[in-house]
Amino acid sequence: MARFAQTPKGGVAKGGAAAGPRTEPFLPGRPARPYRRVLLLVETSLASGRDILRGIARYVRERGDWALFHEPRGLDVQAPSWLADWEGDGIIARVQSPLLGRAVRATGLPAVDVLGLVPAAGLPLVHVDDRAIARMAVEHLYERGFRHFGFYGLTEENWSLRRRDFFCQRVHELGGTVSVCEQPRHDGDTARWTERERELLSWITSLPKPAGVMVCSDQRGLQFLEACRQAGVSVPDELAVLGVDNDDALCEIAFPPLSSVWPAHQRVGYEAAALLDRLMAGSTPPAEPVLVPPIGVVTRRSTDVLAIPDRSLARALQVIREQACRGLSVDDVAAAAGLSRSVLQRRFRAQLGRTVHQAILDVRIRRACQLLRETDLPIPEVAEQSGFKHQEYLGAVLKKRLGKTPAQIRREAEVRPQPPTTLSRTDRPGHTPSQD
User: Fold this and answer.
1) CB-based contact 415:51 (threshold 8 Å)
2) Structure pTM?
3) Domain spanning 130-263: which CATH class is it, in words?
4) What CA–CA distance (Å, rounded) separates 244 from 216?
5) What is the pLDDT along the chain (436 residues), one digit of tens a residue?
6) SS3 410
7) Residues 6+ apart with CB under 8 A from 108
8) For the residues of 108-166, what is the DSSP string, one character each?
9) Does the N-terminal peptide bond of residue 380 adopt cis geometry, omega within 30 degrees of 0?
10) Which of 224, 283, 351, 355 has the fewest beta carbons closer than 10 A?
């Protein structure tokens, strides 16, 4: 049964059911029950913040009797005036400024940061894995044939800088070329904003075409797509554009709809709540941040393209993406591409650095991981739907390629966000997101 209370400023607190240090009556006439009072300083203006709140709520439903205190806020809102006098047991916060970090530390309560913008705050951190996000973005674009890449990000934002560095590192590992454009957030100065628009248009025009571009976030993705229109650059034919956050509303109103890396913000919330529970029980804070890997790439029109000058090879890759999980063989691919098996294999190795069979297996592995993480299908059915003859073969392949069993992959995705309601053609069965 849920528990509600008022925050000092009139927000609503909600709790679910674990033992804690405080005891207050649930309802008049009812016996007192212990529960922990946890303050959530997490914004509701962004999809990432709302997903973090959902993950926290799931942990409370499953594991603990907490009263959750929260009031709607934006990311740039400072610490509430009543924080110093609040009587609680723990805090989960998106610490976006040194001032808020100091205010949270000053309470003396166990606290967990779920943003990471202020490392000097010295709070335990649970965060999305920016390295894994950047590598996933590169591989999504690389498997579509791009060998020229761009990164558009924010200056002075550590998460964007990390994504830039890891993106460039992975591109160089794959032998590609990369160009970077970074700008500060809009500060309201119209003249400076106009100049930055000109800089962005110039950079877009200068990129070699075709190229795959990672934008640091979906919010910036909409701005980038508008700049492409102003520059007369076609998306995805000349530039394929990939955002981060999978903010479904923003991605769907974009033109064209924006593909996006889907970070596991719900799991960030869940893991943050689990960590706070341990801290409130007296555990020592972890020495390193807890990093949560992304779920996958949700493909929409902005990357629904194959950047392969060799049209026969492009056709082969398209067939593999669409049919790999349906018993596709190398001979089937060769026939669809209009090439002999030997010629197809030579072109694959020369232009993509892998065999046709490896390309087919990559798609099947990604599909299997998607089903394990996002569904409760029995493992034999997962094997069948992802193109493996039996679950033993699936298990052997996953262990060899990923170092994990199907059961381990499923357990890691304990907090499963609901999949987007609208997926592009390439995300339906047979068209899977980039490798997790």
Assistant:
1) no
2) 0.69
3) alpha beta
4) 6
5) 334 344 444 444 444 433 334 444 444 444 444 789 999 999 888 889 999 999 999 999 998 789 999 977 766 667 888 899 999 999 999 998 999 999 999 999 999 999 999 999 999 999 999 999 999 999 999 988 899 999 999 998 999 999 999 999 999 999 999 999 999 987 667 778 788 999 999 999 999 988 999 999 999 999 999 999 999 998 887 899 999 999 999 999 999 999 999 999 999 999 999 999 999 999 999 999 999 999 999 999 899 887 777 778 878 887 898 899 999 999 999 999 999 999 999 999 998 888 999 999 999 998 999 899 889 999 999 999 999 999 999 999 999 999 999 999 998 876 544 444 333 333 333 333 333 3
6) helix
7) none
8) TS-EEESS-S-GGG---BEEE-HHHHHHHHHHHHHTTT--EEEEEEETT-HHHHHHHHH
9) no
10) 283
β-sheet bridge partners, residue 90: 38
Q: Measured between alpha carbons, how far is 58 from 52 in angstroms, rounded to an integer?
A: 10
Question: How many Å apart are CA 174 and CA 166, to the nearest integer?
Answer: 12
Tokens of 200: 């962005």
CATH number of 3-123: 3.40.50
Cα separation, 374 vs 254, whole angstroms: 25
Q: Where in the chain is the domain with CATH 3.40.50.2300?
A: 130-263
Q: Could you give the CA distance from residue 42 to residue 65 in angstroms, rounded to a whole number? A: 20
Buried b (16+ CB within 10 A) or exposed e, 384-418: bbbbbeebeebbebbeeebebbbeebbebbebbbe
85: Cα separation from own chain's centroid? 36
Is it true that domain 308-427 has CATH number 3.30.200.20? no
Angstrom distance (rounded) from CA 127 to CA 159: 10
Cα 337 from chain centre: 34
φ, ψ of residue 411 in degrees (nearest 5): -65, -35
User: Can you tell me the distance from the alpha carbon of 336 to that of 313, in angstroms, rounded to the nearest whole number?
Assistant: 10
CA–CA separation, 311 and 168 (whole Å): 28
Q: Where in the chain is the domain with CATH 1.10.10.60?
A: 308-427
Q: Which residues pair with 15 in a beta bridge?
A: 3, 67
Is 19 within 8 Å of 65 (Cβ atoms)? yes
Separation of alpha carbons 107 and 3, rounded Å:
24
C-alpha dihedral sign at 272, 275, 264, 1: negative
Structural contact between residues 90 and 39, judged by C-beta atoms closer than 8 angstroms: yes
Q: Based on DSSP, count helices (H) and strands (E) in the chain, helices before strands.
A: 15, 15
